Amino acid sequence: MMDILFLQGGGDDGYQADAALANSLQRELGREYRIHYPEIQSNNDKADYGWPSAIGEAIKEFEDPLIVVAHSFGGSMLLKYLSENQHPENIKAIFLLSTPFWSGDEDWVQGLKLTDDFDKKLPVDKPTFLYHCKDDDEVTIDHLKKYKDHIPWAKFVELESGGHQLNNDLSVVAEEIRNL
Fold first, then answer.
1. What is the 3-state secondary structure (H, E, C) of 90-142?
2. What distance in Å separates the CA atoms of residue 119 and residue 8, rounded to the nearest whole number?
């Protein structure tokens, strides 16, 4: 059985909203895969809300190969964790959904931004996939284009529709996971 760590998006209702995504992935993959969906709590006293360290702790709970799927804010904080820490050996593949590329000069965004050379610190030996819907109004498609400039080894999938929540249908992600 393959373990999948599903990381939620941010916001006050991110965990509840993304439960439909985690459930969709479990339905599509079936019993050969086990979805782990821990709730990540934000720490407002930290510039990155404590998410990268919480993600690191969640990854360390697994000894066997692990697939990590992350939505929205969870995806951006997974990239932050991976680019600022030693790469966990247990990660088999990385799937990022509707992931924001943080930029700007506002104080609140500084702790969320990736370093200028973040791409040089990512695990290039791990299959990496980024999915984004063209009609995402919350995190627009131009965020995906920014990642394309930095992560040339990744596979990028632009979906015609589905919005920020990908219509709560991760069948296209499940298909790619089964093909690993």
1. CEEEEEEECCCCCCCCCHHHCCCCCCCCHHHHCCCCCCEEEEEECCCCCCCCH
2. 22
Cα(9)–Cα(32) distance, integer angstroms? 25
**CB atoms inside a 10 Å sphere around CB 16:** 11
CA 173 to chain centre: 12
Of 101, 96, 35, 48, the C-alpha closest to 71 is 96
Q: Are strands 128-133 and 91-97 parallel, antiparallel or unpaired?
A: parallel
Pairwise CA distance, residues 37 & 40, whole Å: 9
Whole-angstrom distance, CA of residue 112 vs CA of residue 41: 16
At 146-168, the pLDDT tens digits run 999 999 999 999 999 999 999 99
Q: Phi, psi (5° rounding) for residue 70?
A: -135, 135
The verdict on pTM exceeding 0.70 is yes
Residue 38, both tokens: 């821990």
The DSSP symbol for 32 reads G
Query: Which residue in 94, 69, 67, 71 sits closest to 83, CA to CA?
Result: 94
